[in-house]
Design the sequence.
DNA sequence: TGTACATCAGTGAACGCGCGTTCACTGATGTAC
DNA sequence: TGTACATCAGTGAACGCGCGTTCACTGATGTAC
């Protein structure tokens, strides 16, 4: 385990860069995420980050990958294994909350076509996708899991973006939660009616 | 009506800038949309656009506003006044197609919180929102139009973004269309079951 | 019909900025003997 | 336990770039008389 004993060697600059990048992202949006700014914030020379990241893209990909991991954890924390529409709705609420809590991060995660050069990122996306499918399958055992999970994901993802872009009423967290729950419950009725 | 008779006076630089901005947007993404690049493409000095746009933001807002207008037209063209779920689904398909045809434009329209400094932009957003509500109201007369129209919009918007970000299979237009139709039809079953 | 002049729509040089990235370097660390 | 040395993780100067924006300017246009 590295120790930041001296002032010359940072100790864990890799993690510090990631941390700085995330902070900058939420403060200034993705335009503020420059390697130089990251270095400045980490208290290090402008070129030090190159020890740990090949270029700016590599850093951005690392940030996005961390975001995917956190989103997965966040959803799992909302409910470990949802089996009812109500529990699924709780996971949906967590998804939208994640987007509203870390708007710039969420945009980085979903704002560009999946970068094929970052296998870390591709894998993370696939994991989220599979996770959603698993939940939908458990909640609606009789349904076509692929088709329905896409519909559920799209609905929740769309709610997240519309809130993020100020197109819906996001004045209180309660209003957001209620809306998300209502939308997911509506989808449940579909399945029940079939 | 202005005429571009001489080479000194452009004739309609305002429109030419808008055109150039849209082309650059689709070619290089929003990062490529600089005032200098617009001027270059319009064949004019770097500072000429300032005659017509106060600054870069003003140009971007004008582009977004044009996008909203075109989206509205595009939806109306898909079906002038949908009254059945099938007709509504056609409009949904048109929405997603619009996003996939002009990805960068779509992102500009929805990538930032509605700029409060551009009343043109705010009005355009409100128009789209009202338009969706009207359609949903006509299609599902018995329902709560506000709640349901939000759900419909979110579902379609989410599908558009997931396709845009390469998270779903967008290999053929037919696949996309079928998926969008299926998702909207699913929502209809909800209403019918109540 | 011709001329004077205000107005409009461009030019082009210049500014300061922050960026990504390279390069040769140097200080700190840890390992082999 | 001490020393030599390879390796690692930083530094700082420098590069070229494109950007937004300002400024004083000039060429073209159109209107009043």
Sequence:
């Amino acid at each position: 385990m590295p120790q930041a004993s001296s002032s010359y060697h940072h100790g864990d600059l890799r993690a510090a860069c990631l941390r700085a990048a995330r902070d900058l992202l939420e403060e200034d949006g993705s335009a503020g995420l420059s390697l130089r700014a990251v270095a400045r914030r980490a208290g290090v020379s402008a070129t030090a980050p190159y020890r740990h990241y090949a270029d700016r893209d590599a850093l951005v990909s690392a940030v996005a990958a961390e975001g995917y991991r956190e989103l997965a954890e966040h959803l799992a924390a909302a409910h470990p294994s949802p089996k009812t529409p109500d529990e699924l709705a709780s996971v949906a609420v967590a998804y939208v909350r994640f987007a509203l809590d870390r708007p710039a991060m969420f945009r980085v995660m979903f704002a560009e076509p999946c970068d094929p050069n970052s296998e870390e990122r591709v894998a993370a996306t696939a994991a989220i996708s599979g996770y959603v499918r698993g939940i939908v399958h458990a909640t609606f055992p009789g349904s076509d899991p692929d088709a329905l999970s896409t519909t559920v994901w799209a609905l929740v993802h769309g709610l997240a973006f519309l809130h993020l872009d100020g197109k819906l009423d996001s004045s209180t967290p309660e209003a957001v939660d209620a809306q998300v729950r209502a939308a997911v419950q509506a989808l449940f009725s579909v399945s029940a009616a079939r």
About this structure: The two ends of chain A are 57 Å apart (CA to CA). Residues 1-5, 190-194 of chain A have pLDDT under 50 and may be disordered.
